[in-house]
Structures are given as structure tokens and as C-alpha cells.
Amino acid sequence: MDPNNRGPEEHGHDGDTPRPRPPRDSLTPDFGQHAPALARTVQLVSGDFLLTVNPVDGSEIEVCPPAERPARPEKLTAAERAEVSRNARPPVPPGPTRTVLGLLARDDERERLVRLLARGRSVRLTGPAGSGRSSLLDVVAEDCAGLAPDGVIRLSGFHRTADDLLHDLFYAVHRAPLHRPDREELLDRLREVGAVVVLDDVEFGGSALDELLDATPECAWIVGATPDVPAPSTDSAVEEVFLTGLDRADGVELLERAAGRTLTEDEANWAGDLWFESEGLPLRFVQAGALLRRRDRQRAGADAVDEFGVFTDARPDDAGPADDTPYDAAESDDVPLPSLGEAAAPAPLLASRLSASARAALEFAVALGGEVPHQAHLPALVGDTHADAALGELADCGLVSPVGSRYRLAAGVLTQLESAGYADGARERALAAAQHYAWWAGHPSVTPERVCAEADAVLAALAVLVPTTTPPADGEESPAVQLARTARRRSPPGCTGAPGSGRCAPAPRRPGSPVTSPSRPTSTTNSASSRCARDSSTGPAPNWRPPSGCGAPCPTSGEPSPAAVPWPWSPTAPGTPPDRASARGRSAPRGPLPDSAPSVWASASARPQGRRCPTPATRSRCHCPRASPRPSRR
Predict the structure, then answer these.
(1) Helix locations, 75-181, DSSP H
(2) Considering just the CA atoms, what is the radius of gyration of the chain in Å?
């Protein structure tokens, strides 16, 4: 894959029939010096200030001149919103098409959530980790696709504050490159957004959640959280739906789906004990199904080849694909079932039966605090050209779960692996990851948006290395310092979002204060970067050419944006649904709603969009790399 652009194969559009993986070139070291990254001069508007980022002559911040003020941000089209939503989803792991287990025994919760959202109500879905909360949110988001004028917006609350999420929502709906609005303008734009917002893994409640809801009066929120997150305030009028574990019969059925066959009597009794021990969490049954599949392969004598048709050490030319036919269990087989303790904490047992590349990927994930590196970086980190298939193995076993646009170790897996010894040598692996990311982020073909997308893994590596970093010797540079400087130089200031989100503007500083640019780090070579340079699926694109022209698109012609048109359910418009109006008054009634409840967005029409006029003032906002920088105030 190209490290800058996620191809269709990363999002599950590569067809239903798996294609054979061609052999790749050997990973021979390449110690050549790479071309230095091009220095870009970029101007960002943050509130009332204009920040000029110049890595060569130094950066500066000043009060934004009137001619440099950005025009009113336009809303994204439906196609652009679909692209943003697609980028917000994690990539589909490579490998054969897997059986979708689907939701089980969640129909009542699903129908209730859709009814509440159709009435414009906000809901909090509370369930423990591993209860299938994210899967239920995905299905509800698909059911609500046509309810709101601005569609369904997916956000991740993992390590995000309420203010971060407000800016995330702004960039998910509006087209505002190189512009970070101030608080007043941000709230003005968000009051015009009418969407169903799906927010998972939120880490706050109470007054912070009230602030989020009050800033978006025309949005219906469905918030996923664990029970340890503070509850909404008592007067917030947020409906709360609790997600519990499955009952015993549903747990056995889910285990049969995961195993791909009917359970024997002993296995059914074993599943009952697992249900009691795990309190019916679906994640435990998915992992138990992976244990049964690997037990079946062991009983069938097929453990010499892994589940993806690749031998652990080498693959002869006459080796055929792996047989994925469900094994016909027999009572006479003498391979014992896993113990109840192993089934309740199955991560070490599952990891012991994975390929060497998958186990190495788990070691890197443990070293990075649970962050799983993107599948494109695994071949360089692990040292195996087919290591990107390791993510498919981990997902198939239920050892990783999606968080936003990436993967993390599933609930409880990090603790189980640490107790099994996978944390040994964590600093060495974090150091290898830091060296790889420093080389990768400094390559000229890697865009700043791609560096932002890998920010969590980069920060996780720095979190491990920084506490133990010591002053380097003369002529040397600390890997942590090199990674921090390279990532900072290649990333737009304040960039915290996914590719294309535009969340890359800084908070303002005092006018006239200089912003010192760090010196350019020296180019280093290491085994990880050498492997990445040899592998076209993980390294920089070989046919990259420097871009020409402006660094930002010029505005299109047209009239200024017209005044905002009140929505049919706004407080000033007639016909506001009673439950929506009472929600603003903090006295919304609780209880079930009728099945025939109409959607508050049914009669909404598209808001007219304005276009910017190419006046000389707006044309002067082009930021070409060859343009003369502003005088430095260093």
C-alpha cells in the first residue's frame, strides 16, 4: 500500500474473492542517505491571529489582517461527508473474507435507540468493555443514515475533551482548511449543524457532556461509554440505555457462530461455565470460539500451517491453501478443552498459537501501551514482508478492537499479556518503533496528514522513551528527541485529527511572540527503516514528485453565503416537536416512545450553501512554497 493514500483494499473494497499474495523482494539493508524533507511555509488562521510556519527562517504570529481573514466556511457535500466517514473507520484487516457474526439478542436496544434518535433525543449507551457496544453503535448508525440533513457523523471520544470534540464535529461538517475558528465562531457554526452524531469511547460526563449538547442544539447524540465514566447530569434530559451481558442460550449460540459448528455436550457445559465466569460478555465468547477453532485444527493435525495459508517458517511451492472447513468434532478426540481460567483470560493461550509475526506485533502493541501500529508499518517493525497479515490474525481471535480509525488491544488483553511476559523488552521495542517512525515521518513522500494519523503510536513511543532519556554524547542525538523534532516539523501545528479532517490549527499565542523552529534532524539509518525502504507496501512511494503551485486551494467564484435559514425544528420555527422543545427546557419526559414516532428531520431541506468571491484580497491567501516568507521576528 501507499503510506500516504489508503487504497480501496484497506476499507474492504477489494472484492469477495481473496487474491494470492505475490512474493516480495528480500529485505536487504539499504543504508543510503535519503533526500531531506522539503521545507514548507504555511499560514494558519487561528481565531484573530495569523500564524506563519517557516521551518527555515523561523515562525511568527501576529494579528490577522482583514485581507487574510478566511471566508465563511462552507458545508461539505454528501459525497465529501461519506469520504470523511470512510476515513474515520479503521482499515479492514488483510486476508480472507471473515464470517460476520452479527448482533445477537440486541434487537430491543437497537429499535429503542433508533426511535429516540428519530425524535431528536440524545442517548447515552452504557455498557462494560467487551459488551458489543461499538458493534451496536455501528448498526444504529446505518439505520439512521437518512434521518438528518447533515447525515451521520462518527466521532471518537478516546482521549478527547469536549472542546476537542466540538472542533472535530466542525471539521467533519465544514470545509475549512488551515482555519481554526475561535470559540464564538465555532459555536455559531455548530448551531447550524443538524446531524446524528455517533460518539464512542467517551471519557467524560456531567457538565462537560452538557456543554457538548448545548453547543449543538440541532444534533441528536448517541454516546457510548463504560460504567466508570461519570453519568450525565440529572437535568440534562439525556436518555440512558444500559447494555448487559448475554443470557446463557445466546452465549452458546454466539460461541457456535464463532466456532463455525455445533458444540458437543462437553463444549456446551464448558460454555455454560464460561458464561457464568464472564457475566455473558460477547467478547469472551468470540475469543472462546477462536480457542475452539484452533483446538479443532490441532485435533485435525493441521497446525503446521496457519489460518491464512502461510507457513510459520517457510512455504514450499507445492503447498496448497489452508483448509478452513469447520472440523467435525468427535467425542473420541483426546485434546482437552481449555481450562476455565484459560477461557476467562485467553490472550496468552491465543497468542501462543499465532504466527511469529502476529506475536511480534503483540509485543509492539504491549510496548506502546495497547496501540497497534498500522498494518502498513508492521513489515518494517517485525522484519517480515507478510507481517501486515498479522492484524487479520489478531482481529480474528478477538485480541484487538477498533478505536476510531485505528486498532487497540481489546479489553483486558494488555493486562493478560503483560502478566504472561510480553512486556519484557518493551523499551527496546519502543526504541525500534521510535527510530522507524522518525525515519518514516521525515521522508519527503509522507504527508503531514499521514503523520497525524499515526500520532497515537508516535506519542505512545515517546511516552515510553522520554522518562528514561538521558543527555546524548557529543555528535549524537536522542531517538526520542529526533522523533519529536521530525514529527513536529512534518506535522501541521496542533494537528490532532485524521487525514483530511483539517484539525491542524494551533491555539493562539501573544501577538509578536516568536515561535522557534527546531533544527532539522540528521538522517539516520536503522534496520527498521531499511526494511521499510525496501518494501513498497510500507515505504514511501517511489514515484513521488514535489508538488507545485499553491499549498492551499484558491476560493471559487460565487456570491457570499446567504443568511441562515431556520430549521423546521428550531425554537423560532413553528411545529417544534414537544419532546425537542422540552429537552431545551431541561424537562424532557422519560419513558418509551410510540413505534410510529415521526422523524424530526423528515421535512428538512438542504441548507443553501454560499461560495466565496475571488477578490484580490482572497486571491492573496495563496500560500506557495516558493513564496517569499514574512520577515522573521526571531
Answers:
(1) 78-87, 107-118, 133-143, 162-173
(2) 26
Q: How far apart are CA 345 and CA 495, in angstroms?
A: 38
pLDDT band at 472 (very low <50, low <70, confident <90, very high): confident
**Three cell numbers written together for 121:** 433525543
Provide the 3-class DSSP secondary structure of residue 64: coil
Pick the closest to residue 359 from 420, 315, 309 (CA basis).
420
Amino acid at 362: L
Helix axes 107-118, 133-143, angle to 10 degrees: 50
pLDDT digits (tens, 9 = 90+) for 542-593: 333 333 333 333 333 333 333 333 333 333 333 333 343 333 333 343 344 4
Hey, what's the torsion of the CAs at 547, 552, 553, 559, to 10 degrees? Answer: -170
**Burial of 11 from C-beta contacts in 10 A (0-12 / 13-18 / 19+):** middle
Mean pLDDT score, 245-258: 93
For residue 504, give the nearest of 540, 453, 461 by alpha carbon.
453
Dihedral sign of CA atoms 346, 349, 353, 357 in order: positive
At 366 the three-state DSSP class reads: helix
| Per-residue confidence (pLDDT) for residue 161, from 0 to 100 | 94
Beta-bridge partner residues of 224 = 125
CB 358 within 8 A of CB 394: yes
CA angle 389, 393, 394 (to 5 degrees): 115
Q: CB–CB of 118/569 below 8 Å? A: no
Locate the DSSP E strands across 146-250: 152-156, 174-175, 179-180, 196-200, 220-225, 239-242
CB atoms under 10 Å from CB of 608, counted, come to: 11
Pair type for strands 74-75 and 123-126: unpaired
- Residue 243 cell numbers, joined: 447494555
Report the C-alpha gap between 275 and 461 in whole angstroms. 37
State how far the alpha carbon of 249 is from the alpha carbons of 78, 94, 162, 243, 341, in Å: 42, 32, 40, 17, 21
Rounded distance, CA 173 to CA 191, Å? 12
Please state the rounded mean pLDDT for residues 12-21: 49
Sheet order of strands, 239-242 included: 152-156, 196-200, 220-225, 123-126, 239-242
CA-based nearest residue to 124, from 35, 21, 212, 27: 212
pTM, two decimals, is: 0.70
61-91: buried (b, 16+ CB within 10 Å) or exposed (e) per residue? beebeeeeebbebbbbeeeebeebbebbbbb
What CA–CA distance (Å, rounded) separates 380 from 531? 5
The position carrying cell 454516546 is 223
Give the mean model confidence (pLDDT) for residues 370-389. Answer: 92
Q: CB neighbours of 265 closer than 8 A, spacing ≥ 6?
A: none
C-alpha closest to that of 538 among 547, 530, 548, 546: 530
Q: How do strand 220-225 and strand 196-200 relate by DSSP bridges?
A: parallel
Distances (CA, A) of 622 to 63, 67, 549, 550: 18, 12, 9, 6
Give, in order, the Cα–Cα distances in Å from 553 to each of 53, 501, 614. 18, 15, 12
pLDDT at 23: 52
- Grid coordinates representing 429 are 521495542
What is the rounded distance in angstroms from the CA atom of residue 21 to the CA atom of residue 30?
Answer: 24
Cβ-contact 539, 3 below 8 angstroms: yes
Query: 544 to each of 120, 277, 377, 521, how far by Cα in Å?
Result: 47, 55, 19, 22
Place of cell 478505536: 403
Q: How many CA atoms lie within 13 A of 471 on its CB side?
A: 2
pLDDT at position 501 over 60 = no
Identity of the residue numbered 620: S
